[in-house]
Amino acid sequence: MIDKEKIERAVTLLLEGIGEDVGREGLRETPGRIARMYEEIFAGLNQTPEPYLSKTFSVKDSGMVLEKDIVFYSTCEHHLLPFYGKAHIAYLPDGKVVGLSKLARTVEVYARRPQLQEQLTVQIADALMEYLQPKGVMVMVEAEHMCMTMRGVKKPGTQTVTLVTRGKFEEEKGLQEEFWRMMGR
Ligand code: ZN
Questions:
Q1: Is the pTM of this model over 0.90?
Q2: What domains are defined for the chain?
């Protein structure tokens, strides 16, 4: 669980470390504010997608399901700076589908923790494979990383794209092509 008191102490130290006056008015409540914010943006650390993906509905002979443009905000675990963008999730049901909002919930569970985009993409795909047991899954994540745009190479607008395929999406090029067609690309 999140230890807010520890975060407050750490933020105070961090501010002192950069040479700030932690007693000045604008900063006085910052450690507490950050502790409360971290509780929210790292809430996924204490969650699994199980409550969202275990409630399924039966379908017969469904084609590919694509939920695109799922907006997410996450935090780069290397710099603790935000990265944010869109996730697109496709799966080929094997008799079971899940409510569409549950896919967005699943993205949130994995986005709300210190994260890497590659790992986020893999975790979403594997969660669907585990809980829904579909014939296949394809997940694409597109994101802008603040650690690339506000420091270092400073290339605003650069999108990092990650792609993971599982099951039939790995083997059948036709399914991947259908994914791109449904994405409108
Ligand atoms: Zn980073």
A1: yes
A2: 4-41 (1.10.286.10), 55-182 (3.30.1130.10)
